[in-house]
Amino acid sequence: MSDENGFNFGKNWERFVKDVDEIKIRGAVESLQNALKIKTLEGKAFLDVGCGSGLFSLAAMRLKADRVISFDCSERSVSATKVLKAKYYEENKNWIIMKGSVLDREMLSTLGSFDVVYSWGVLHHTGDMYHALENVVELIRENGKLFIAIYNDQGIISAVWKKIKLTYNKLPNIFKMPYVFLIASVLEFMRSLKRLLKGQSPFRRLSDSARGMSGFIDWVDWIGGYPFEVAKPEEIFNFYYKRGFILEVLKTCGGKHGNNEFVFRKIHLNDKL
């Protein structure tokens, strides 16, 4: 999450927002609707933790959220989010964008509480994942929802990915993009070969969007994203169950490299008895 501690996430998101269009926005809106099982956020407060490009804050606004707060510890991510807001919601005072860290409990205490706290693929990049997971608990209202995605723990494979990410961040800037192309090309070739062996088309464009995101920007993020922590799905489930949450949605990456996606709902501890 922090540019100062490793990968320059903000720079990556500045590139991404230049290409945001209605197709990407619609993909983000549908992603929120499907995961949260909602049609609208009308009457709801939405917090985007580690907002990155601001795309999902924009999606929340499109879903008529009453209040949206977006924050990121990267100045460039904050800037990217402001660019997106200026293009679509320049005069809307219900969308607040600010710099801040999910590890800063004093800052978090000033934000209030929310019906939806969203942090997709962020908390494992803070350098202190479990403190980040803990710090969002008090931000969620009773019956509010927490929508997060955390890197899957693959044991030795995750250790290899950590080395890949460290290597990227140690390279001189001139070699970083060639490194991304090399790693992405090898992995895309392996995926194409698997599809071919299954009798499927081996072709899949690197620019294909998912959740409204850009395929290539995702590759840069995945290969360079550091700090980097992982967890098994049951570890995340147990962590939040003990803190008064029930799991409403679980979408795993099938034991592969990727994010496991969770939607939790906050309840009274006594409600579980």
Structure summarized in a few sentences:
The chain has 273 residues and is α/β, with parallel strands linked by helices. Helix content is 42%, strand content 18%.
Describe the protein.
The protein has 273 residues and is of the alpha/beta class. The chain folds into two domains: 3-153 and 227-272, Rossmann fold; 156-224, no CATH class. Helices cover 42% and strands 18% of the residues. The chain is built from ten helices and seven strands. A seven-stranded mixed sheet has the order 3-2-1-4-5-7-6, with helices on both faces. α8 (173-197) crosses α9 (215-224). The N and C termini lie far apart (37 Å). Mean pLDDT is 88; it is low at 1-5 and 205-209.
